[in-house]
Specification:
By secondary structure, the protein is of the alpha+beta class.
């Protein structure tokens, strides 16, 4: 699994911390957990921020822009999620705390009013 590989590498880079993730699925809740249609794909800025998060979680905490390999990795993660969840809408939000970052991919599938969220967090300790 892609997330487990990322987690493994992150823990190698940050032995006292590393990447953690939580997955949430909520039936019949997209209408209030995700009330605004933000689009079927992340914006270029959202993709860049997700890539920056992934790059930093792997021990390469840098300023923008992200390396192309991490842009591809962000696209791969989104493609896996879309294949598994068949979402209609997706958004990414992130907080950069310097020695840690947290973020959330929120997704909605309107055909059955289902909400999904992948919470991601990494820290150096």
């Amino acid at each position: 699994m892609l997330l487990e590989k990322l987690q493994e590498r992150s823990h190698a880079a940050y032995p006292e911390g590393g990447l953690l993730f939580t997955y949430i699925e909520a039936a019949n809740q997209a209408h209030f957990r995700y009330p605004v249609d933000l689009g079927a794909a992340l914006s270029a800025e959202g993709l860049e921020e997700l890539a920056r998060f992934l790059q930093a979680s792997q021990g390469d905490y840098i300023a923008k822009p992200s390396a192309p390999v991490f842009i591809s990795l962000a696209q791969e993660l989104l493609a896996h999620l879309d294949t598994d969840l068949n979402f209609d809408e997706v958004s990414w939000s992130m907080d950069d705390g310097g020695h840690d970052m947290s973020g959330a991919l929120k997704m909605a599938r309107r055909t059955d009013n289902r909400f999904f969220e992948l919470e991601l967090m990494w820290s150096v300790d």
